[in-house]
Specification:
heterodimer; A: 310 residues; mainly alpha; 55% helix; globular; B: 139 residues; alpha+beta; 4-stranded antiparallel β-sheet; elongated; binds zinc ion
Chain lengths: 310, 139
């Protein structure tokens, strides 16, 4: 670790804070009579998935760390740690996160890991903790390796990753409607991320940002929350269970079933792994673009609106 | 590793306490049998325009089946906490088997959808649909 980098284990600090903030939200919703809904089994599943994720990804963390250290040693220049280089690393991490998150949604292999986070039909602070147990297995860490090759120290990269994840906790709430305009313009907020968790056709595959919503605006995936189309949370095909083992593994089971179907070509089997969720060889399921197109067939006046094709 | 296990154990305790608190402050008021209104709302939410026919309620009343229009498409609505989940499939995709004392166990090819039981009139209705559409598919 660089000498002047504070030795802060952000994840161990965050755990109790998450629980306290969830407690506050549970009480605040009851007190004010608005701003979200909690359900015991749903919240318990979400927090259990979070605890499992912290243990599994924590235990496997040494593998990614070893890869990052190796990449850092290859770096021709080592970037010194100071407030400016830290800020640069934080912003670059968030840019990488945007593309990782887009991959999670646009390739079924990534989706099999990330679907866990979207599997609740509720949207509250506990939903933020519903995290994947197979982050490592998804291969997404590869996208961050260039940061180490650029010369950012692996400890700085890890700190930026931790802080990025912590930032993403607070906006999983319906308790906050909108933030000040300037903040909504630059930062990811509860309103922007509600859209990301919604399964309304117009909201599918939008708002991938972690911290800065500007990436979605730059890369064409931004959709604002509309009062006329309130978000419905969950998956296009919602789960019928709270069993954490099924929640974590169901999409992998789905992939396995698809690639072992008799009579498919090798190309078709491969496409069941890397194509967007919903892709199929026989038209029996719908991908998000087909869902949007079907929606437009029924609501042609929506053509060209944010989140819908022309 | 020790820290991680400690984290996990304390999380389990925190989960239990939070679940108790949520049950107390936000009790689940959606636990009754699935009604036709709930069924229709679930279909509308998923842009399914076809009207459901007679509901077949499961023994625990936590899920309901109905033909869409005249079939052979069928919808199943299941309570998941205070929400519902929906599956639309062909009646021929249901697997049923006798589970003793007039009970029929029903399952679908879905890893996240636990099997359930129907009995009495619901079991008879389901058997009728199956016979009708099996014959139709063989005709
Ligand atoms: Zn996502
Ligand atoms: Zn989220």
């Amino acid at each position: 670790m660089p000498e002047n980098l504070p030795d802060i284990d952000v994840s161990s600090l965050a755990g109790p804070a998450y629980v306290i903030l969830i407690l506050i939200e549970i009480i605040a919703i009851k007190w004010r009579g608005r701003g979200g809904i909690y359900e015991a089994k749903d919240a318990a599943t979400s927090i259990f998935m979070g605890a499992g994720s912290a243990v599994i990804n924590g235990a496997l963390g040494f593998i990614t760390l070893a890869i990052f250290i190796f990449a850092y040693q290859m770096a021709p220049v080592k970037i010194p740690f100071n407030v400016w280089t830290f800020a640069a690393c934080f912003v670059l991490w968030d840019l990488c996160y945007y593309w990782v998150h887009r991959y999670y949604h646009r390739s079924r292999w990534g989706w099999a890991a990330h679907v866990v986070h979207h599997s609740s039909q509720h949207y509250n602070l506990s939903t933020a903790l519903r995290q994947s147990w197979t982050t490592m297995w998804s291969g997404a860490f590869v996208v961050y390796i260039p940061l180490a090759l650029m010369g950012f120290h692996p400890a700085v990269i890890a700190l930026c990753g931790g802080l990025n994840l912590i930032y993403q906790f607070w906006f999983h709430t319906e308790f906050i409607d909108k933030c000040p305009k300037w903040f909504e313009a630059i930062m990811n907020t509860p309103s922007h991320h509600r859209v990301h968790h919604a399964n309304n056709p117009r909201y599918l595959d939008s708002n991938y940002a972690g911290v800065f919503i500007v990436w979605d605006k730059m890369f064409g995936s931004f959709v604002p929350e509309l009062k006329s189309d309130p978000p419905r949370y969950g998956l296009v095909v919602d789960l019928g269970t709270f069993n954490p083992l099924r929640v974590f593994s169901h999409e992998y089971v789905g992939i396995f079933k698809d690639i072992t179907k008799p009579g498919l070509t090798l190309g078709q089997r491969w496409r069941y792994i890397y194509k967007p969720p919903g892709w199929c060889h026989d038209g029996s399921r719908l991908s998000s673009s087909q869902i949007k197109a079907n929606y437009l067939d029924k609501h042609p006046d929506g053509a060209g609106n944010p989140g819908l094709p022309d | 590793m020790e820290t991680l296990l400690y984290l996990f154990a304390s999380s389990v305790i925190a989960i239990a306490l939070l679940a108790l608190l949520i049950n107390w402050l936000h009790p689940n008021t959606h636990q009754g049998p699935i009604t036709i209104e709930t069924f229709k709302a679930a279909l509308l939410d998923h842009d399914q325009q076809q009207a459901p026919g007679t509901l077949c309620l499961s023994t625990d009343a936590q899920q309901s089946l109905a033909l869409l229009g005249k079939g052979p498409k069928l919808a199943i609505v299941r309570r998941v906490g205070d929400r519902v989940a929906l599956r639309v499939l062909s009646i021929t995709e249901l697997t049923t088997r006798q589970a003793g004392s007039g009970q029929t166990k029903v399952s679908i090819h879905d890893f996240t959808w636990p099997s359930f039981q129907v009995e009495g009139k619901s079991a008879e209705q389901l058997a009728k649909w199956q016979t009708k559409f099996k014959e139709a598919s063989h005709a």
